[in-house]
Inverse folding.
């Protein structure tokens, strides 16, 4: 997360360096005709410089240094500052037309999480939100988040709430970008998944840093971002580059069984799907890639051949015994039992809840 920035007053006008030039020549009792003769510049050229229509070039600055005894770098800095002010003024006018777009972005939540400053000026706030997204305009935001035919758009949430949806994913991107990873290696990632499966028996304090370490060594950045309002997603997968991929998770549902299923579901996307797509797990079925990811997570955690055994479980001790045999957390076995039998109250005390620290 970025450090908080301080904002100074920014005027809505720009003073051309030509005005300073007029003051300097006036103090030297030099007429505009004299200045033209001494610099070798046409009077019309000087008039355009005075009004800020024509810039002071490096060559002109050198001439002014000889004539006024004011260093050339002073005129160059003055011109650069003027052009910067003009650019910001023009940008502000352009952004003023896009203020309405902010209504589609969860700015309040982003402020509460420290990603955006709590600014009252709407144009400055718009600029901050664009900075958060890493884009230069609302049009650029649309090109990045709305126009590409990515898998995420198959989600009703992304179609109806692109602002909150993109904000959640962007938080994951920022977190993932800060994670140093080795180049992606499929075999190494599979080996990491085998080891991570055994970590399901540990507490979050143990498994969270280990997941991140093992995955980073295989080129996968695991980001954990708190769920946002209007974004009913369990996870997402996005390639950040040819050799680095992000798995983004939240604690929606809070049960360890759902968390681990979501993690291995996203791992399935990493292993089997195209790098160009952004995949989101909103719990809806019907898409081939999502069904494949579901099947991968199901088989990796508990192979389907155990389903009949799980449906016949009758006591907590039997659930724990089977979990020990499988080398996974009892809560995952309990979650599978609930899913298979639809008896959602059975063994729920074995499913540990996960909370944000």
């Amino acid at each position: 997360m970025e450090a908080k920035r301080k904002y100074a007053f920014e005027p809505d006008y720009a003073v051309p360096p030509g005005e300073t030039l007029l003051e300097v020549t006036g103090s030297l009792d030099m007429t505009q005709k004299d200045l033209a003769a001494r610099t070798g510049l046409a009077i019309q050229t000087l008039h355009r410089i005075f009004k800020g229509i024509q810039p002071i070039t490096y060559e002109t600055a050198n001439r002014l240094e000889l004539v006024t005894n004011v260093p050339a770098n002073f005129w160059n800095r003055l011109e650069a500052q003027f052009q910067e002010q003009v650019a910001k003024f023009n940008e502000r006018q352009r952004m003023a037309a896009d203020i309405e777009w902010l209504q589609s972005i969860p700015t309040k939540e982003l402020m509460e999480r420290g990603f955006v400053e709590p600014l009252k000026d709407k144009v400055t706030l718009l600029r901050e939100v664009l900075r958060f997204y890493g884009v230069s305009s609302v049009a650029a935001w649309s090109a990045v988040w709305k126009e590409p035919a990515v898998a995420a758009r198959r989600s009703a949430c992304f179609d109806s709430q692109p602002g909150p949806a993109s904000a959640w994913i962007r938080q994951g991107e920022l977190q993932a970008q800060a994670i140093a990873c080795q180049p992606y290696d499929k075999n190494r990632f599979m080996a990491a998944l085998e080891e991570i499966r055994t970590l399901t028996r540990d507490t979050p304090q143990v498994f969270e840093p280990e997941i991140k370490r093992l995955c980073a060594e295989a080129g996968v950045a695991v980001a954990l971002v708190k769920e946002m309002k209007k974004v009913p997603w369990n996870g997402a997968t996005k390639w950040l580059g040819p050799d680095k991929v992000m798995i983004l998770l939240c604690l929606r549902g809070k049960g360890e069984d759902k968390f681990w299923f979501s993690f291995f579901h996203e791992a399935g996307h990493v292993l089997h799907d195209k790098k160009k797509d952004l995949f989101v797990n909103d719990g809806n079925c019907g898409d081939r890639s999502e069904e494949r990811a579901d099947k991968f997570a199901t088989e990796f955690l508990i192979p389907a051949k155990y389903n009949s055994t799980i449906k016949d479980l009758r006591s907590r001790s039997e659930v724990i015994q089977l979990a020990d045999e499988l080398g996974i957390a009892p809560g995952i076995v309990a979650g599978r039992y609930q899913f298979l039998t639809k008896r959602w109250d059975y063994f729920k005390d074995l499913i540990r809840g996960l909370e944000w620290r």
Notes: Residues 13 and 89 are 7 Å apart (CA to CA). The two ends are 17 Å apart (CA to CA). The longest strand covers residues 235-241. The mean pLDDT is 88.
